[in-house]
Amino acid sequence: MKKLINEPDAVVDEMLEGMVAAHPGLRRLEGTEVVVRADAPVEGKVGIVTGGGSGHEPTHAGYIGDGMLDGAAAGEVFTSPTADQLSEMIQACDGGEGVFCVVKNYEGDVMNFETAIEMAEMEADTDVEYVVVDDDVAVEDSLYTSGRRGVAGTIFVHKVAGAMAHRGADLAEIERVAEKANDRVGTMGTALTSCVTPEKGEPTFDLGEDEIELGIGIHGEPGTERTEVMSADEITDHLAEAVLEDLDPAEGAEVATIVNGMGGTPLMELYVVNRRLQELLEDRGLETWNARVGDYMTSLDMMGCSITVLELDDELKELLAAPAETPGLTVTEG
Amino acid sequence: MKKLINEPDAVVDEMLEGMVAAHPGLRRLEGTEVVVRADAPVEGKVGIVTGGGSGHEPTHAGYIGDGMLDGAAAGEVFTSPTADQLSEMIQACDGGEGVFCVVKNYEGDVMNFETAIEMAEMEADTDVEYVVVDDDVAVEDSLYTSGRRGVAGTIFVHKVAGAMAHRGADLAEIERVAEKANDRVGTMGTALTSCVTPEKGEPTFDLGEDEIELGIGIHGEPGTERTEVMSADEITDHLAEAVLEDLDPAEGAEVATIVNGMGGTPLMELYVVNRRLQELLEDRGLETWNARVGDYMTSLDMMGCSITVLELDDELKELLAAPAETPGLTVTEG
């Protein structure tokens, strides 16, 4: 397998250098794989941070900027960041009002964040709260995870927490909206091909030429089933129906959606999926207020996509519509 | 090869439906594969339009919006739009000040645009001017092309022409800045794998497991050479040096750059390329004013990237910095 990399063990370091070189609003904490806003800490605002394994770009550091994240810690590919680096990030993003962490539900991430939070509280007396995002409706208790996994719905949690912090809310208010978004969002994904890690250089799992995997995790963790190749419409129906069954949105509810690419699928195909998704939502009497299509949380070079549906209320809509400017997501005024 | 599509011959139609469903600022001209601004034509402003084969998303319709394009015509995959549809687009985007067309240098595109322009002039008395973009420094007289090919540098031409029209410039002024941007931009690409068209379902060209192709075109047209797999830094040096040799920028010049993904390469790898590119430009005494990294002009699911360098002057900088809001590129005030 061919990749645009140098030494596999340098890929995270070199990627972060390339990100910071492209985006002047980002700064790397020296000697770490932590990226923060260039002007961090922002005085008088709760800092919003996240972190996790690399290989999911633009997740995580791609959502740093005004109205979203203050910091993101990058682990090695598909590996949690260390508690030391997470603690350093938390302390670097505390502008006096405390720090809120958005943690995806993987055992290593949760454990290292919990340790890091204790360290930051002990070492710097930082007030910290956190949410554990578990939007993947496919499976419970997967590889690396007790309970449900945290996947692309996390982008919505970043957005609402970031907007809430930007308008001056305190930790408790931010925790409330982050929990609300997590309660009201569901995601399910599919893989057409396996991802290939730089280290291993070959597929993480075997998938036949005529097979796809439904319910796949973003590290290639097993999903719900393997089936024969299906059409885009059939796949969309399968994913969207599983999400809606879990979410059970109110009749006539407004929703925000993401058709998320896994890294190796072209935008053309994601739009084909979005066409069917929007048709299906309309048939169900749901109203799409905002539809995102693109690579938001990838799995290296995996071909495939995930579908995310968030059931809105007025507060969530207002927070999603608030301006944000980051490398991976921009929302403009009005 | 597996793809998220339904019938191969429906893919362009379904992609356009999915785009328009995602982006309320876009509208499809009924019965065509033409997408325009929802509010087209904008009275009192020169309309900026483009078009070309599908499979390069977000090119072309992804750059429709305030400050960039008014319309984009989609051909079948890797096939020029018809003169009829191009003419319909031109007429739909004329708000009384005429229409400016950004044409990439492929024989079919140029021929069909020239015919369409004659049709629009005859049928609707529309004033039309155009630029033929030919930024690819790799080869002259390739498959489908006399002279150099038009590739990712076209994004800069869209941006400066769109900004100029937005501020009320006339056709001649827009033509001048579009020609200037085209004169000062160079691009070169590489493929790690072939693209796979929906129609054919197998690789367009054969590339060995240990081979890459330098100077590749965005339809898989032959490049300058095939070599053994190289590191990201070696590839970056090769591409950037070819571009700089052709461009021959002034000592100490300011530049804008794009590391463009071909569709199947993850963002992680594009940032690794950007790291080396910025290092090399600094070593050459050039100053990067703005660096873009992402999928701007793709080649279906091809793995690989291209590097674009634009030599700036004050006018081009001002036009690139002007606000724009499109699905594929957003520039915010300040």
From TrEMBL, chains A, B:
InterPro entries: DhaK_1, DhaK_dom, Dihydroxyacetone_Kinase. Keywords: ATP-binding, Kinase, Nucleotide-binding, Transferase. GO terms for biological process: glycerol catabolic process. Coiled coil: none annotated. Pfam families: Dak1 (PF02733). GO terms for molecular function: ATP binding; glycerone kinase activity. It comes from the Archaea. The keyword Kinase applies. GO terms for cellular component: cytosol. Residues 7-329 form the DhaK domain. PANTHER family: TRIOKINASE/FMN CYCLASE, TRIOKINASE_FMN CYCLASE. This is Dihydroxyacetone kinase subunit DhaK. The lineage of its organism: Archaea, Methanobacteriati, Methanobacteriota, Stenosarchaea group, Halobacteria.
